[in-house]
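seq as requested:
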Amino acid sequence: DVMAEFNLILDVSHMTDEGLLEALDRYAGPVIASHSNPAAFWDNHRNLADRHILRLAERGGVIGVVLYNRFMNPAWHPRASKAETPLQRVVDMIDYICQLTGSAAHAGIGTDVDGGFGAEHMPDGIDTVTDLLRIGDALRAYGFSDADVEAILGGNFLRVLGGALPV
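struct tokens:
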């Protein structure tokens, strides 16, 4: 209720299934999953089930794909080669969110690079922040329009943030 008074954005990343659904039922304000992946690629406690992704999309929310190999590749281990988690895995997850929701308006990049891991734990081809632009190139090569790529690379999160700011 206090969050609603200030029109704060609710981030459901790290929530349990039950907590996420309860939060979406209780909170009518803006919602995002700043750094969460589709459970369809690996069903673990950090990734979102399709029903969660759809609920977030119904509310205009955005799901930021986490670029941490541990949450993208069930076979990953700390000594794994970056090549074992190719950049295409990021594109596949983003495309999955877009296909499931019927729109590119609900996908984003939620790097989580401040989460205590380095470049050696990110997908092949991502070594620095500037390499995030490679995701856009890969999305274009996959058939995404320039407008959709712009939205995914930041526009979707900016839309939610702008809607939460006082006018």
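The first strand starts at residue 10 and ends at 11.
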